[in-house]
Fold these 2 entries.
Entry 1:
Amino acid sequence: MARYGTQFGPDITFHEVPRCDWADPGTFAGADVVVLGAPFDGGTSYRAGTRFGPQHIRQASYSRAGGARPSLALRVDALRDLAVFDAGDVEAFSGDAERMVHDLRHAVHALAAAGVVPVILGGDHTIAWPDIAGVAQHYGQGRVAVVHFDAHADTGDVEFGSLIGHGQPMRRLIESGAARGDRFVQLGLRGYGPPPDTLEWMARHGIRAYEMTEIGARGLDECLGEALAIAADGCDGVFLSVDIDACDPAFAPGTGTPEPGGFTSRELLDAVRRVGYELPVVGMDVVEVAPPYDHAEITSFLANRVVLEALSGIARRRADARDGSRWDPRQPLLDDRRRDG
Ligand code: MN
Ligand code: MN
């Protein structure tokens, strides 16, 4: 299997973290997190273009070389507090979905087995199958819960005559036993589908899906609290899968199957920060960024920050575990006494 820097140039790493080779653990010794690109759009059902996702997500950064990225909200600098590397892209020919699934799963498993958190930049959502299966191959079948943000359930069976595609990864994961339906939560679903037989399959497997009208009526905080409690129940780790189309097309226009009525950027960032801080995240992907449909890099910047926000949550979780403190989102940024005095 060919191993690349990045499949499509320029050959840069995520926020200029050091480059490594996923197949050679010596190149990422001591790593907490390894970023991996999956430039694949062979599973899209409508507008293609996610093969350029990893390139543009990496590019959407204005930090200077070696610059700090301290989170104002969390008072941590994820890229310094965690040891983060970038393994470049797994070769992903969009005309050969089966080979991509095989190769990506192999790479993700190698990273999980080395004890790091793989963060995969998609790519269309087909990659969630090898991403989560690769992590489960290390932690154990059914031992990793899944928190899935998406406009779509992605639980289809056969589409376009194929078992592989961006509308079906979650069914493949649950059918194969890699993930448990009753530890699988979905947030942001809306629009027109899936059909009743698919909803029936989802209910039978115990998936908890939060549709946008329920989130609107009950509030995101309450729904998320409930969802995270389901995911945290008796698992050995949690995989966070973020389809950028969970956000409203106003906030994420650069995607293949946009669905009006989604989250704001603010809501998605708040949510992934909570996942990173409150749950034992063992893997993550951000998918469905299609730069050809983007405007002003809105979607690429959002995806880049979704990764940073989750990593910041993970960094703060680990810092708090070390010193016994707890992050309080109501704490003001600046100390009042100093400001007044
Ligand atoms: Mn999806
Ligand atoms: Mn989607």
Entry 2:
Amino acid sequence: MAKEIKTIGILTSGGDAPGMNAAIRAVVRTALVNGLNVKGIRRGFSGLLEEDIIDMDGRSVSDIIQRGGTVLYTARSKEFMTSEGQDKGAEICRKHGIDGVVVIGGDGSFQGAGKLAARGINTIGLPGTIDLDIACTDYTIGFDTAVNTAMEAIDKVRDTSTSHERCSIIEVMGRNAGYIALWCGIANGAEDILITERYDHNEQHIIDNIIHRKQAGKKHHIIVNAEGIGDSYGMAKRIEAATGIETRATIIGHIQRGGSPTCMDRVYASTMGSIAVDLLCQGATNRVVGYRNGQYVNYDIEEALAMTKDVDQYMYDMAQKLSQ
Ligand code: ADP
Ligand code: F6P
């Protein structure tokens, strides 16, 4: 028989992402509507091990849907990577009467959630990362806001780049994944998009490209460079030396992680938060919620972690054609 859940714990883990607050609000309020108690676990698994646990009610999540970051704070915990740490975490959940936990984070956080599930605490993971690098889902909480922030920043760089007829290399976040770079590359009309999934490190090809586009009348050359490739400043120096065209590098950085979430992030995060509580009420555990092919789905954590995905080849090829 499915375990009856009376008290839900909620935590955010790994890098923060805009929309996490909307998900927290949805978890808290859906749980309360279902007659459950809710405890906020602050600072991710690290806070769990430190028993940094607070009672939450409807007012605890007032006025947060529009705010970036996470009101529960977030952290990375080395101790929770050990089986002793995981035993201690499950024991602390029991001590506080927490029978179900919603974990909002990326793949690393889902591994942590799986360890709690294996120790008898029902867990549901929600995909929270600006990087979009979670294989079981087409959508992650925060990506839409981050990619819009990066797009607006690149538009600004483009203005000055055109005025000075320069080449600009703009580095966006994404850890080893190129989704932010690819989406911005298309949205900003970049001449080149460098992503780990496709870049062959042939810098001469980029240099030739810059020269040809200049001859064809282009007034700027925008290169969107993914964090996983990096070296934007070094690349700018080498390109300027080889082409004779003034070249500047801009690293957008953590600006991409903050700010008020877009409508899409608020709505999807709210829906996923609500689904997580529904799943816990149905007795589900060790599941990750995703959004795939236009539908909300959920998968066993191990199954989700074993999945792989790649950037869309059509989008990548199209970006190259549209930048002629
Ligand atoms: P993300 O969740 O964004 O992928 P991390 O990979 O930094 O971010 O993971 C966040 C936290 O999840 C880690 O600091 C750790 O507490 C926990 N975690 C990651 N991997 C594991 C694991 N294999 N076992 C248990 N906990 C893990
Ligand atoms: O995973 C989100 C992310 O912003 C990545 O894009 C980036 O590589 C990393 O986190 C940066 O982490 P930190 O905030 O620890 O510098």
